[in-house]
Design brief:
CATH class of the largest domain: Alpha Beta
Structural class: alpha+beta
Largest sheet: 8 strands, mixed
Radius of gyration: 30 Å
Bound molecules: zinc ion
Number of strands: 27
Strand order of the largest sheet: 10-14-15-22-19-18-16-17
Distance between the termini: 51 Å
Length: about 550
Amino acid sequence: MKTNLEVAYILAYILFSKHNAQITNIEEKGDYFFVDFLSEKKISKLDFVAIEKEILSFCKSKNKLQIEKLDKKCFATNNFVKEKLVENSCNSMVHYDNFFFPYFQTDHEKLDFSLSFFFVLDNVSGVYWKGDAKNVQLQQIAGFAFSTTKELEKFRTELLEKKEIDHRKIGQELELFTFNDLVGKGLPIWLPNGTTIKTQIENRVHEILQKHDYQFVQTPVLGSDNLYKLSGHWQHYRENMFPPIVIDEEKFVLRPMTCPHHMIVYLSKNRSYRDLPFRIAEHAILHRYEPTGSLIGLERVRSMQLVDTHVVTSLEQIASEIKHCYETIKECLDCFHINFYSIDLSLHDPKNKHKFFDNEKMWDLAEKTLEECCQQLNFNFVKKIGEAAFYGPKIDFQIKTTLGHIITISTIQLDFLLPKKFNLLYKDKNGGFSCPILIHGGIIGTFERFLSILLEQTKGILPLWLTPQQVIIIPINDKHLEYCNKVLSALKEQKIRAFVDCSNERIAKKIRNANIKKIPYQIVIGDQEIENDLISYRCYGKTTVNKCKIPALIDLIKNCCK
Ligand code: ZN
């Protein structure tokens, strides 16, 4: 049984009575409890041992916190609590000695101070009163508590496992990406290793798209406000866009999507029915505004790169083009062994006129058509009302991340609206002009999110062809360097990503570092290797040392990459 709140109140009492802190908030959120307080003394993790001892000795004593009827007079000197009491209805408080704190929980979650408590103080950080940076800064201790040690240990193990496979931790160990507030929150910096992985993914997806007859285009990261007013993003998607940059009386926005630019690509010349389906793709850099609090590593960012595709098609071609788009997605994801968790058919909410373009007839046709496509493709799908794009319904392919989040990885969207807004036309078979339909396809989602998924699913042990550094070469001492460089040249000539570790570290440390970086092939060169003109290597995660000639290792690596 969780005992988060009970321990939180005891901790609050200890902070108040022994550390001179003024308690401003006590709450339970998710698996954790939080105690916020104002104190002149800065509490650090080093203080946790002492605080834990104080909590334990209080629990062992006969003294118990009491739950009493709320007496507002007790909080005359605590403005934080006074403010909270005005905002919340509250009948009880927790009391011991001269410590009082209101108890805001509902009746069915009664506190029980007679239980046994097993707890961990997990973290201390700075927070602002009511989460607003304009307000006073407070300290916050987070922790978790249970009534048995067995439950506590189970939770702790799960937590450690989750932390181990968190893409943020793996990304740091493998030196893939970084964030820096000086650049800006939510703006990822891809480091050399990360960029190598990204380029490999990009190349693979590029090949598959070319095979499926997509033509690549390149369009600017900015667009005028008029472009987005015409597309409707200005009216329906503005809260996700960065505000305009105004220069020379012109307004530009950082694009959140490439669709309007791609409409202009179509309009660059006259088209006929023979040109359809017209399939284009772009490795596009996009910017979307996300609130600071919702940014999570690479999973939720403000600057992202996406393989964005658009297919302009006739009405008759919709079903075959959606199938074609699905096959492209499937082939890309199969390369990375990623399977869908669920498929959603995201529909509009007729009541929400702000979020969705207002034309019921159009929605009716688009939603019916897309549902038929889902049935033809034998999708086991769930309808989600209100999850459509503002311009049309979509099929969202969902995966479940190792950390349990359900997120969209790929999407196919049917759009009758944008071609009309941009007045796209094609000469039909009868010599007249018709307006085509647009299919938006997100093939593997953004590179940022895709990498976060890959890292968590593989625990950072990427397939050899994706690994940023495939081989490390370690000289036993400096006199072996020359031979190491000879091995390096031979590997590089065969486009194998390798490097020589010529740092001053000891051999054992170098091997340990190579393991942290999960480098698949670890070569060690000493006198024996040079005398016999061969190499000794170990594979990541294995203890056996193998010996062979350089060409044999090259063949092995090349075969593995296939
Ligand atoms: Zn689009």
